[in-house]
């Protein structure tokens, strides 16, 4: 039986980043020699998906752990363009407004700048960034756009992708990995409204007992997704083809910060074979490791192994140079 966490027992805070209210968790010591770790969740998760990692890393006594609800999720703002339906149950009958465009705040460069503004709010010059699923894309863009703010970048289950000269389309993703066929539905008109109308079914399927969640965990996800709706979360998929123009200057740019790619061999969407095919040629300092047991929801399915992999990598990276890396000072 997994450990049961009460979300209310975590230290909840808010900050304004990019003009939007961000909700985040702040755990662990805040001493001068503390290294800050920022955990970035994916789709359709919340800060709560990191609950095991937050508690473990904070308990080590040398890491301050920050876990935000990303834009469009949970307690964080959910911007939308004028013709999009509202959040939650109110938009069930507005599928005609539920188009294929998204608010530019969801472009990866914007999201990366929000992470940097969160560091500014925390008075942290540099941090370790860890991403899972969609969160790895945001972590990678912080590392490419703002390498001076990153101590190390860790990707769990989804490799960092460099910016290419040509737009990588939804069709390209599906051709590369047929498991991504659901991308096409997520960017289709009416998808968010349809998912809002069946939010309980969707949450029960994704956050099942098999994915490492209890009934109480599922209730927390259901409450948040009922209140917030899926317009924000699906905007990440809609942004894939729309945000390319603003990142063209990154084409050919090397990724200079220390990087760990933690491959989840049995992830049905992002398995080991797929992850190893993504080029690592642009990385100056990359390590690859693997987890053999667990699937896509590895953070909750096999938290002890994830925690140990993170702890071991951070120890190798920082124990010999803590004085020069603490809080980026």
From TrEMBL:
<feature type="domain" description="AB hydrolase-1">
    <location>
        <begin position="36"/>
        <end position="302"/>
    </location>
</feature>
<keyword id="KW-0378">Hydrolase</keyword>
<dbReference type="InterPro" id="IPR000073">
    <property type="entry name" value="AB_hydrolase_1"/>
</dbReference>
<dbReference type="Pfam" id="PF00561">
    <property type="entry name" value="Abhydrolase_1"/>
</dbReference>
<dbReference type="GO" id="GO:0016787">
    <property type="term" value="F:hydrolase activity"/>
</dbReference>
<dbReference type="InterPro" id="IPR000639">
    <property type="entry name" value="Epox_hydrolase-like"/>
</dbReference>
<dbReference type="InterPro" id="IPR029058">
    <property type="entry name" value="AB_hydrolase_fold"/>
</dbReference>
<comment type="similarity">
    <text>Belongs to the AB hydrolase superfamily. Epoxide hydrolase family.</text>
</comment>
<protein>
    <recommendedName>
        <fullName>AB hydrolase-1 domain-containing protein</fullName>
    </recommendedName>
</protein>
<feature type="region of interest" description="Disordered">
    <location>
        <begin position="76"/>
        <end position="100"/>
    </location>
</feature>
């Amino acid at each position: 039986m997994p450990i049961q966490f009460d979300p209310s027992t975590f230290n909840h805070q808010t900050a304004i980043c990019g003009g939007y209210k961000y909700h985040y968790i702040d755990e662990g010591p805040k001493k001068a020699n503390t290294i800050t770790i920022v955990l970035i969740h994916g789709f359709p998760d919340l800060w709560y998906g990191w609950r095991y990692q937050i508690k473990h890393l904070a308990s080590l006594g040398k890491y301050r752990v920050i876990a935000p609800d990303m834009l469009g999720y949970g307690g964080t703002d959910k911007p939308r363009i004028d013709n999009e339906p509202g959040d939650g149950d109110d938009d069930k009958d507005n599928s005609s407004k539920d188009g294929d465009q998204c608010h530019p705040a969801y472009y990866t460069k914007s999201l990366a700048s929000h992470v940097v503004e969160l560091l500014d709010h925390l008075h942290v010059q540099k941090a370790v960034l860890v991403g899972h699923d969609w969160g790895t894309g945001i972590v990678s863009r912080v590392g490419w756009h703002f390498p001076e703010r990153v101590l190390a970048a860790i990707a769990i289950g989804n490799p960092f992708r460099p910016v290419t000269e040509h737009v990588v389309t939804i069709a390209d993703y599906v051709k590369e990995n047929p498991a991504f066929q659901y991308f096409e539905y997520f960017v289709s008109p009416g998808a968010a409204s349809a998912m809002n109308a069946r939010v309980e079914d969707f949450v029960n399927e994704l956050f099942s007992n098999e994915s490492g969640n209890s009934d109480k965990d599922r209730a927390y996800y259901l409450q948040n997704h009922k209140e917030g709706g899926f317009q924000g979360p699906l905007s990440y998929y809609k942004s894939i083809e729309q945000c390319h123009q603003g990142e063209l200057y990154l084409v050919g740019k090397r990724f200079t910060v220390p990087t760990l790619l933690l491959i989840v061999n049995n992830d049905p969407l992002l398995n080991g074979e797929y992850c190893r095919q993504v080029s690592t040629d642009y990385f100056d300092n990359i390590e690859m490791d693997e987890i053999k047991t667990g699937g896509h929801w590895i953070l909750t399915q096999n938290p002890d192994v994830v925690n140990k992999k993170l702890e071991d990598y951070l120890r190798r990276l920082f124990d010999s140079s803590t004085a020069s890396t603490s809080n980026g000072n």
